[in-house]
From TrEMBL:
Residue ranges constituting the NADH:quinone oxidoreductase/Mrp antiporter transmembrane domain according to the UniProt record: 146-441
Listed GO biological process terms: ATP synthesis coupled electron transport
Localization, UniProt: Membrane
Protein name: Unannotated protein
Transmembrane segments annotated in the record for this chain: 12-33, 40-58, 78-98, 129-146, 184-206, 226-251, 263-284, 296-315, 322-342, 348-370, 391-409, 429-455, 476-498
Listed Pfam families: Proton_antipo_M
Keywords: Membrane, Transmembrane, Transmembrane helix
Any one GO MF annotation of this record: NADH dehydrogenase (ubiquinone) activity
UniProt xrefs under InterPro entries: NADH-Q_OxRdtase_suN/2, ND/Mrp_TM
Entry keyword Transmembrane: yes
Major place of residence: membrane
Keyword Oxidoreductase: no
């Protein structure tokens, strides 16, 4: 028996390997660097890691090789754009995470215990959140490139496990944070089980775990179609859970509300890019020739997700829960790009993911600034008159809300116009009508918050806007500038995506 050494293309794998190396350095810093210098060291390593990985990604994007790690990863134009989006969003998220006031000083302590109080009095920092973030980023970079089901599952768990831990690290409302972490973990485990069952059925159908092998079996049309339908359904459950699509959305509001707000921003933006990247690849490559089997069900899910997210968001009194249901509605809009199954659908989805991700991080960054003596204030009634207390903060948040609503002069308008145009071109009129109506409904609750901030009198209940740190200010400023720039002058990014975004089959 001859052993064949695996062939790895380290140049293509470099961005992921750099992020993993940075995460391991962060673990060593936790073990060997004194606590007073740990936060600065971790921040430097995390930022340097993301910047170097992004530079390496730019350097190798035009390389001729298209596969790595024994063809388990496909390195194509769409993959490069998705990885770049993840790294940029992760970088500004790390700036937000660096505000350690959002994280508990003693994650393993019982909430309200003497040990926890002593840790807070000693100003202990939860710096392990930085390597956890980098491990999650590494999984996210792997997720959109995976070209077989085993690699896809490994990436899914790699990005999910750190997020389960990070969701329970909130400094304020500790019990709610731990409840969020437990719900996210348990429901995430169930979704992973569905994914594995789906992979087993697809292997039984095609005798292959690779996307190319599954596509070849579908094209041949000689295998058991029942196995194919069950496999697609179960795989879809696992992936739709990660994007919070209806009816697999139940974790989103509680996890968004209970998690530390910087972690909420990170998972709401970067995880969505990675998960939709994986969904796009598997449906555009592996399941493309079986569209009549999965398209009707996906259309129903997309419409239900749009309508449900938009309607339920109206009744929310907590700003983080409102943004959670808003993200559910946006997941429905993004599914329109998947259903389009066309080049224009792919381009529109990648643009929308990047634009929505940046606006999301910026919006949640604003939420971290509204506080009272007990911590963050997320009750919308207490945001009344915020525009009179802090016009700049309220105005910036209003701008992000207008971007979510798809108002012209924002990136959200370009994103929605592009994705609805792709849906129309593909003949999905039901998606188009539902999307436009859901957008109108969503605009109502976004504008309601703006009216509350600027046209209501402030309530004297101790709510105030704290002065943001330089890092948080950088996150908000970058998100707002890019959101405006993509709304006013989107052509360079649209042209880049149009010339680059392709999936290699």
């Amino acid at each position: 028996m001859t052993f064949s050494a695996p062939v790895l293309d380290y140049a293509l794998l470099a961005p992921m390997l750099i992020v993993l190396a940075g995460a391991l350095v962060g673990v060593l810093i936790e073990a060997f660097v004194r606590s007073t210098a740990r936060a600065a060291a971790q921040l430097f390593v995390a930022v340097a890691t993301i910047v170097i990985a992004l530079a390496q990604l730019i350097r190798v994007r035009n390389q001729g090789s298209t596969s790595a790690a024994m063809s388990s990863l496909t390195f194509d134009g769409a993959g490069v754009l998705l990885q770049g989006s993840i790294l940029i969003i992760s970088l500004i998220s790390i700036f937000l995470i660096a505000d350690q006031d959002n994280f508990t000083a003693a994650a393993a302590a019982v909430p309200g215990s003497l040990e926890e109080r002593q840790a807070h009095q000693a100003s202990t920092k939860t710096t392990e959140v930085f390597p956890l973030t980098l491990f999650a980023v590494a999984g996210m970079l792997l997720f959109p490139l995976a070209s077989d089901l085993i690699t896809l599952f490994v990436a899914l768990e790699m990005l999910s496990l750190p997020l389960y831990l990070m969701a329970g690290l909130s400094r304020y409302r500790r019990l709610a944070s731990q409840e969020a972490a437990l719900k996210y973990f348990l429901l995430g485990a169930f979704s992973s089980a569905f994914f594995l069952f789906g992979a087993a059925f697809l292997y039984g159908y095609s005798s292959s775990l690779t996307f190319a092998g599954i596509q070849a079996a579908i094209t041949g049309g000689t295998a058991n179609d029942v196995f194919l339908l069950i496999g697609i359904a179960l795989i879809s459950v696992g992936l739709l859970f990660k994007i919070g699509a209806f009816p697999f959305h139940a974790w989103s509001p509680d996890v968004y509300q209970g998690s530390p707000t910087p972690v909420t921003a990170f998972m709401a933006a970067a995880t969505k890019v990675a998960a939709f990247g994986a969904i796009l690849r598997i449906f555009y490559v592996a399941f493309a020739n079986a569209e009549w089997q999965w398209k009707p069900a996906m259309i129903v899910i997309a419409i239900a997700t749009m309508v449900f997210g938009s309607l339920v968001a109206i009744a929310q009194k907590d700003v983080k829960r409102m943004l959670a249901y808003s993200s559910i509605a946006h997941a429905g809009f993004l599914l329109a790009g998947v259903i389009a199954l066309s080049k224009s659908g792919l381009d529109a989805t990648i643009f929308y993911l990047f634009a929505y991700g940046l606006a999301t991080v910026g919006g949640f960054a604003i939420v971290t600034l509204v506080r009272d003596s007990a911590g963050e204030v997320t009750d919308l009634n207490r945001w009344s008159g915020l525009g009179k207390r802090s016009p700049i903060v309220a105005g910036t948040f209003a701008f992000f809300l207008l971007a979510f609503a798809g108002i012209p002069m924002t990136s959200g308008f370009i994103g929605k116009f592009s994705i609805f145009s792709a849906a129309y071109q593909s003949g999905s009129l039901a998606i188009l009508i539902a999307g436009v109506l859901s957008s109108a409904i969503a605009a109502f609750f976004y504008i309601r918050v703006i009216v509350l901030m600027f046209f209501k009198d402030p309530v004297e209940d101790g709510t105030s806007v704290v002065i943001p740190s330089a890092l948080t200010t950088s996150t908000i400023a970058f998100s707002a500038i890019v959101t405006l720039a993509l709304g006013v002058f989107p052509a360079p990014l649209i042209n880049l995506i149009a010339t680059t975004a392709t999936f290699l089959r």
